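Chapter summary example.
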Amino acid sequence: MKRTISINPTKPQYITVTNLSYAQIDYWFGHARMDLKLDIIFPEEHTEKKYPCIVWICGGGWLSMDKSVHMAYLSKLALEGFVVASVQYRTSNEASYPSQIQDVKAGIRYLKAHSERYHIDIERIGIMGDSAGGYLTAMAAFDNDKSLDVGAYLDCSSEVKAACMWYPPTNLAKFMNANPVSAEKLMLGAELSNKKSALESSPVNFVRENLPASLIIHGTNDNTVPFSQGEELYEKLNSFGNDVELIAIDGADHADEHFFQDEIWSEILSFFKKKL
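The structure predicted for these 276 residues follows.
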């Protein structure tokens, strides 16, 4: 059977580029250089239309991360009209705080600097991450200290308009214990591995008025990052009059299958469509 059909294209073609180098940093005790990379899904079309962008930050206890592991889910956001980029950052065996935040901010600046190429509306940048990535999401969104912007494209701002944090560590002082090799202490480094410095390096310490719109998603049965961590950040953001919502997933543990159901991705999509 032969058929001829007519198509009226209403959507662009989406392209995925992996392992795109966005920055180069000192590595191996300063003797070598290391490329930091990102994956990006963007619309390839011959118009000047710009799209909001969501930057994803993978978790892994700051000990390991894989920027590509959730691209199947992130592609759902892209197909709904977003540019989506997943950014690599240095883990705690490669560098200590605040290098991870510097890397995330460098990724945001790169995307803004190349906004024409990837059809990004630089006024509509959001950020999202899980666990350690949720921590980095909050820190990148709330801490606008200019000293964190290092490297290239410094004429571009690393500020974002909206942030979605999954089960984020928000007050690191409450994780400080006798374990000398806890994930938090390894990330902060020896000089910051005390309760005072840990609090000063926590998202709750940077809460003030007029912060980006925030969505916190946390399981009530989280045995890795207690639900109280998400609640604490929510309550403090709310006390300063910020635009914030906390979605508590009844019975969900840390990073379990609850977070990958359609209901949650619909909530995320709705949040970014409203706030970006």
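To summarize the output: The chain has one domain: 13-275.
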